[in-house]
Amino acid sequence: MRSQPKVWIVSEVYYPDEDGTSYYMTRLAEHLGKYYCVRVICGQPKYTARGVKVPRIETRNGIRIERALDIRLNKNLLPARALSAICVSFFMFLKMAKEFRPGDVVLVVTNPPLLPFLATAACKMRAARCYLRVDDVYPEAMIASEVLPENSFWIRGFRHLNKWLYQNVDKIIVLGRDMERLVRSKMSRNRDRISVIHNWADLETITPSLRASNRLLVDLHIEDKFVIQCAGNMGRVQGIETMFRAAEILKDDGRVHFLFIGNGARRKWMEEEVSAKGLKNVTLLGFRPRAEQNDFLNACDISMASLVAGMVGAGVPSRMYNVMAAGKPLIAVADPDSELSLVVEEERIGWVVPSGEPARLVDAILDAISDKGRLGRMGESARKSVENKYTADHALVQYLSLIQNRSTAACRANPL
């Protein structure tokens, strides 16, 4: 007897990794699993849980997880990262081509860049429906991160391939309004396939807490400083340079301290800058588990989130939602038309500073120091905003609505 259609989540990263995409796809799979028969195809842990041994096939919270073969290379070295991404994408394709069935709904993410093309091909081969969740828009993200020059043969080819991808998937989910505009500009038809579904805050675990009771500030001996924090991936598109130039300008201002929490491709450069420039007003901490978010996100007076120039529409930093959940004002170091900047301006929860202008970032920091009462009001507005607009319940209902009319069946009707 032919099995009932399923919902497939296809993502290189998944539990037990805890980075943004892993977290969101795990939450999404487990929520959809309450209503549909959900399966996951992913790779081996390679970010926050890198090196953790996990079964090739396991069931967690009712979701069957199938992990493809992978090669473990240094993700911070571009050639090694590219080779690893190509290999895991093809191994995942072999699973997709084998497992997909007519009528299945497949939700695939855009990282690594080859993966959505292979997933779309597998869907066409097996008569499944392909839903594309756009976490990063290519080739814009590659250009902004200086991985490839804009006028290169590879970039021109990628633009043509992406047009094909957007026209051949059944649905497109984007994470912000700037991303919707960018993706829409690449499509000549079927633009009604695009849906904006924002990421969300961890409201269940993150709440505003009193600064005086924060142990991290005490342990770091910066409890008497005005602390500006940036937490998350320290990669090539995060605009770390602008923040470091601001720290250099303010290094003799004894009131101010910068706290960076996380790892990524720019981490080694950050360490070298602290040493070379004598930035005693900068503290670098490594990755902190998601379970510690409430402590470290509250270890500051104001937070920063940033994107390099050229990233408008190409990515939306999910870190901003958890910063807002902690009731912290936010400095958006990004283009004014980015989703990050739009949220900060609309909710009146901070400042917007163009990337690459450290002097203006310094001005924003000094303005923040001058009126701590205003900071408190901004923090309250930030928390109210996520409670009203950026909750998991709100986002997951939107995902459900995209597939509710499909002929999928609950797993209890088709046990493993």
Q: What are its keywords?
A:
416 residues, alpha/beta, Rossmann fold, 2 domains, eight-stranded mixed β-sheet, six-stranded parallel β-sheet, 15 helices, 14 strands, disordered C terminus
Overall description:
It is a single chain. The protein is α/β, with parallel strands linked by helices and 416 residues long. The chain has two domains: 7-200 and 391-413, Glycogen Phosphorylase B (Rossmann fold), CATH 3.40.50.2000; 211-389, Rossmann fold (3-Layer(aba) Sandwich), CATH 3.40.50. It is 40% helix and 16% strand. It is built from 15 helices and 14 strands. It has helices spanning 20-32, 78-99, 115-126, 140-144, 153-168, 177-185, 215-219, 240-249, 267-277, 293-297, 319-325, 339-347, 358-370, 372-389, 392-403, and strands at 7-10, 38-42, 57-60, 63-67, 105-109, 129-134, 171-174, 194-196, 226-231, 256-261, 282-285, 302-306, 330-333, 350-353. An eight-stranded mixed beta sheet has the order 3-4-2-1-5-6-7-8, with helices on both faces. A six-stranded parallel beta sheet has the order 11-10-9-12-13-14, sandwiched between helices. The two termini are 14 Å apart.
Number of helices: 15
Q: According to CATH, what is the class of the largest domain?
A: Alpha Beta
Report the CATH topology name of the largest domain.
Rossmann fold
CATH superfamily of the largest domain: Glycogen Phosphorylase B
Order of strands, widest sheet: 3-4-2-1-5-6-7-8
Beta-strand residue percentage:
15-25%
**Second-tier CATH architecture of the largest domain:** 3-Layer(aba) Sandwich
Rg, rounded, reads 22 Å
Helix content: 40-55%
Biggest sheet layout: 8 strands, mixed
Average pLDDT value? Answer: 92
Following the backbone from N to C, one meets helices and strands in this order, namely: EHEEEHEHEHHEHEHEHEHEHEHEHEHHH
Q: How many structural units, i.e. domains?
A: 2
Shape: globular
Q: Separation of termini?
A: 14 Å
Which ranges are low-confidence, i.e. pLDDT below 50, for 5 or more consecutive residues? 412-416
Strand-pairing-aware structural class: alpha/beta
Per DSSP E runs of 2 or more residues, the count of β-strands stands at: 14
